[in-house]
Design goal:
463 residues, Beta-Lactamase, Alpha-Beta Plaits, 3 domains, 5-stranded antiparallel sheet, 17 strands, 47% helix
């Protein structure tokens, strides 16, 4: 459903696998898959999965993960196949670790020398570049069930042991098939614990749109209790305008399995809506998803985007937007294209005589007059201190003149501090496809300055 980091992806994978095990009715266990998964989670170079046999008091390697060609070489060096090999139970060693789930060894010699001989183990370390070794024990009711032996590359160190402990605990639950229901409940508890500590909205849903499981973050963000949401269709909480694209995304999810940066709006308990950004992964018949509330972030982005193209005082478009519009709209479809250039007379006098707040008031008043007169498709910009420009696509010279006349009529009836507001306006119209709008703007500016000079010559203007 802001993107998953490496740890979150691994945790989602554990959730996926645990859900698969919970739903499974098979009596067999895929030891190879379990071992490969531990290698993926730990980053180990080689991983062995050993199951403890209480009757014989020995461990048996049921899973082995690593590059097959190197495993074959190791088998040759040892003189036997590691996979399927039985190892004596070292009571002294297990008493030393005192029931700890994780034990870290500096090298392979510390854990295997007594069984294989120090010289042989040292040769294996050197040949295969094995460094740190981790023993992840698997317990059930404080009784040893097995372990994962993780051998790291000499350049690496094992990380995120908590994640491996969670995975090992999950595997431990699966090993005890006679207590499947109890183990499912414990597994659910582990998942709930993970769900409860995550600040993002986590959920598991099916492809029918039903929320199978959600975490407490849903209550924090949307106000709904998880028990209320679970079992309901998530589409019931999606903004009506976002329903169609959400259903399309659900359909796409069945094909591509993973979606990133999908955004829609979800209803809060008070009826308002929040923007959520989703990352999703599909596994078999379920969708595992994470969402983050980006409402404030989105509003801030909109504010930044607005300010980048708008004048902060009047709310009109700014010079940047004008330049972009001239480039974007300079095509044959918009001919005739008229441009009006406007300069507010006596802004400096107003600022000097009445203060800059009065000058700002004059500019806002000017923007309101111009916006009120213009058509909805016209683009009104404030491009400088007292300069405004109106872009009129598909507008003849007659239309431009009419706009200027109506603005003047309104201005003549408008006063500030007992004085009539005054503007100088010029216009020009593109009628030929070979003409450039940038040149048309210059012609409108030239005419505006001529009008302003004439205003300046008038005694009333000077006064």
């Amino acid at each position: 459903m802001v993107g998953f980091n490496s740890r979150e992806k691994k945790m989602l994978k554990i959730i996926e696998i645990s859900q698969k095990f919970i739903d499974s009715t098979e009596s067999t266990i895929d030891y190879g898959f379990i071992t490969d998964m531990m290698r993926e989670l730990s980053g180990g170079k080689y991983v062995g999965f050993n199951i403890f046999n209480y009757r014989n008091k020995e461990f048996k390697t049921r899973g082995l993960s690593g590059e097959s060609k190197y495993i074959k070489k190791a088998n040759k060096l040892l003189g036997f196949d590691i996979l399927g090999k039985s190892w004596p139970y070292d009571e002294k060693k297990y008493k030393a670790i005192k029931g700890s789930q994780v034990t870290i060894y500096k090298n392979l010699r510390e854990i295997a020398s007594e069984v294989l001989g120090e010289k042989l183990v040292k040769g294996i370390e050197d040949f295969f570049d094995i460094g740190q070794v981790a023993l992840i024990s698997i317990y059930k009711d404080k009784k040893i069930m097995g372990d994962f032996t993780i051998m790291m590359d000499i350049k690496d160190e094992i990380k995120d042991l908590g994640l491996l402990e969670i995975y090992a605990s999950m595997v431990g639950m699966m090993l005890d098939k006679t207590e499947a229901k109890k183990l499912s409940a414990e597994n659910k508890e582990s998942l709930d614990r993970f769900f409860s500590v995550n600040i993002d909205l986590l959920c598991i849903a099916d492809f029918e749109g039903n929320l199978v499981r959600v975490n407490r973050a849903w209550k924090n963000v949307l106000g709904f209790d998880p028990s209320y949401l679970e079992g309901k269709k998530f589409i019931e909480f999606v903004h009506p305008e976002d329903v169609e694209k959400t259903m399309k995304a659900l359909k796409i999810q069945e094909e591509v399995l993973e979606l990133d940066e999908f955004v829609n709006r979800y209803r809060r308990i008070d009826g308002s809506y929040r923007y959520l950004e989703w990352r999703t992964q599909a596994y078999e018949n379920l969708i595992y998803a994470s969402a983050r509330d980006i409402t404030e972030k989105r509003e801030k982005q909109k504010e930044i985007e607005f300010l980048s193209f708008h004048d902060h005082l009047t709310g009109l478009y700014n010079r940047r937007y004008l330049d972009d519009s001239i480039f974007r709209l300079d095509n044959n479809r918009n001919i005739p294209f008229s441009i009006i250039s406007i300069d507010v007379d006596n802004l400096k006098f107003t600022n000097d005589s009445y203060g800059h707040e009065a000058g700002d008031k004059l500019l806002v008043l000017t923007s309101e007059i111009i916006s009120d007169i213009c058509r909805s498709e016209d683009i009104v910009c404030r491009i400088g201190g007292d300069e405004f420009v109106i872009l009129l696509p598909n507008a003849t010279e007659a239309v431009a003149k009419d706009v200027i006349k109506r603005i003047n009529d309104r201005v003549e009836k408008t006063k500030m501090y007992g004085k009539t507001v005054s503007m100088s306006m010029g216009h020009a119209t593109k009628t030929n496809k070979n003409e450039k709008l940038s040149d048309i703007l210059k012609l409108a500016d030239d005419e505006m300055y001529v009008k302003k000079f004439k205003h300046y010559e008038q005694p009333a203007y000077r006064q």
